[in-house]
Design a protein that fits this description.
1 helix, about 10% helix, mainly beta, 4-stranded antiparallel β-sheet
């Protein structure tokens, strides 16, 4: 897998919650860190995602927004 994104974090899929069109996928990166992403149900199928399977959280963003109360 060749990508221009620098932030490629391997982990294990711990949950897939499917909705009508999209699914929420949780990936355990280890050390108590979990990343949650929303992708289409079609993408879940195309990627062959299943709980317990290894997957990558890949982050490429030009902006990061941080908020605080």
């Amino acid at each position: 897998m060749k990508l221009s994104a620098r932030n490629k974090m391997p982990g294990t899929v711990t949950a897939i919650d499917r909705g009508a069109v999209n699914a929420t996928v949780q990936i355990d990166l280890g050390g108590g860190t979990t990343v949650t992403a929303m992708i289409t149900n079609a993408s879940v199928e195309e990627l062959g995602l299943e709980v317990g399977k290894t997957a990558y959280a890949i982050v490429k963003a030009s902006d990061v927004i941080v908020g605080s109360d």
